[in-house]
Design a protein that fits this description.
- It is a single chain.
- 51% of the residues lie in helices and 11% in strands.
- It folds into three domains: 4-63, no CATH class; 75-266, Rossmann fold (3-Layer(aba) Sandwich); 324-423, Alpha Horseshoe (Serine Threonine Protein Phosphatase 5, Tetratricopeptide repeat), CATH 1.25.40.10.
- With 425 residues, the chain is an alpha/beta fold.
- Residues 1-241 form the CheR-type methyltransferase domain.
Length: 425
């Protein structure tokens, strides 16, 4: 017998589309578990998996290899902090903001959500994060809250000194962050998954839907729609935006955050506040570049009760940021206008010259549009200009893994591990 039976079994259990990770990854996991169970016959192991829920769970955990780190794609966390301070708090003088991280993997994402909110001055008593994963193994790691070097990547690691303590086994996360997150072992596709409706103000479900076939994606999005409050925001992965546009969601128009709202809410006018806010609610995370439109005098007066007025010249300074064109191109992509986004990027690089960040953005846009060969080409161009461009290394590794090139993906991940310390301040 072949491996097709295991692929079907995993699809039924967790909605996994084998094409998304490559058959080789499933074959490797099956062989590893057969060896651990001391079985040489594949049919006998298949019977064992079908008869034992615990072995099926172990096989799932062998297939699900988490690749995550703190503040991965940090624009989403910057957007979370701004939305919480600028939109949620002013309209909710009482109560608790509810957030969901799904899948939460080994905890880096939900803990990053908590650090982003706490660092922005959001009171810990005013928010709670539910973190859900199908893997009991990674949840054990998450609850332990001790992390090695691979969980800390990029240039901006001030949060590590603020929230972690160095130990002989790694960096241990402090209780102030840990108590904001509740971990749950559950399957998104289970009939009894988080019963009820409109439970969450914010949902992070990033880079999960790409592992499902279209029918399973549709089912998963319906669950997310059910759980998201009418005025809530859903954060997804860059390759999943097209799916949202076909399910009554529209872009929240936050560049590179890949955030979406339900259509009936998004149709309402939302006042956008400039990123310059008082220190009490300023996020420690560098915000994504934005193109800022000056507020009218009446709008500024309306905001004065909550936000301090920006200093003279602040709006003008934001308007002339040299990388504002990237925000404009990413906003076009966020709205599904991919051809216009590509054209904007290419025109600007012809004027200003090629740049690693420009090619990286082109790669993201092609990734979103499902053109993986061109996405890979742009990521490689970014790496030609900057061999240690961490975002391009990470996205290209993920893309290669999706295409079944596990060896190539591992080579790039090794480069990420070597490059990350070099980029640390």
């Amino acid at each position: 017998m072949g491996y097709a039976a295991f692929e079907n079994l995993l699809k039924q259990a967790m909605g996994l589309d084998a094409v998304s990770i490559g058959s080789a990854a499933i074959e490797h996991a099956v062989q590893a578990r057969m060896s651990a169970c001391k079985l040489n016959d594949m049919a006998a192991y298949l019977d064992a998996v079908r008869a034992s829920p615990s072995e099926l769970q172990t096989l799932i955990e062998a297939v699900v290899v988490p690749e995550t780190w703190f503040f991965r794609d940090r624009e989403a966390f910057s957007a979370l902090a701004r939305m919480a301070a600028e939109e949620w708090l002013p309209t909710h003088p009482h109560g608790v903001m509810r957030l969901l991280s799904l899948p939460c993997s080994s905890g880096e994402e939900p803990y990053s959500m908590a650090m982003a909110l706490l660092g922005a001055g959001f009171p810990g008593s005013r928010f709670q994060i539910d973190a859900v994963d199908i893997s009991a193994r990674v949840l054990t790691h998450a609850r332990r809250a001790v992390y090695g070097k691979n969980s800390f990547r990029g240039n901006h690691l001030d949060f590590r000194d603020r929230y972690f303590s160095a130990t002989a086994h790694g960096h241990h996360l402090g209780d102030a962050v840990q108590r904001q997150v509740l971990f749950h072992h559950a399957n998104l596709l289970a009939p009894d998954f988080l019963p009820g409706e409109e439970r969450y103000d914010i949902i992070f479900c990033r880079n999960l839907l790409i592992y499902f076939d279209r029918a399973t994606q549709d089912n998963a999005v319906r669950v997310l729609q059910r759980l998201l409050k009418a005025k809530g925001v859903l954060f997804i992965g860059p390759s999943e935006t097209g799916l949202m546009l076909s399910h009554d969601f529209v872009s929240a128009k936050v560049p590179l955050a890949f955030a979406f709202r339900k259509i009936d809410v998004a149709a309402r006018t939302v006042l956008r506040v400039p990123a310059t806010v008082p220190p009490a609610i300023r996020s420690p995370i560098r915000p994504a570049p934005t193109v800022v439109t000056a507020l009218s005098q009446k709008q500024r007066q309306g905001l004065g009760k909550v936000f301090a007025a920006p200093r003279p010249g602040a709006l003008q300074a934001l308007l002339v940021k040299p990388d504002a064109w990237m925000a404009e191109a990413s906003a076009l992509a966020d709205q599904g206008r991919l051809a216009e986004a590509v054209k904007s990027c290419e025109e600007q690089m012809r004027r200003q010259g090629p740049s690693p960040q420009g090619f990286y953005l082109l790669g993201l846009i092609r990734d979103v549009g499902g053109n993986l060969p061109e996405a890979a080409q742009h990521y490689r161009k970014a790496l030609y200009l900057d061999p240690n461009h961490l975002d391009s290394l990470s996205h290209l590794a993920f893309l290669l893994e999706k295409q079944g090139d596990a060896k190539g993906a591992q080579v790039l991940r090794d480069r990420v591990r070597r490059a990350a310390p070099m980029r640390a301040p």
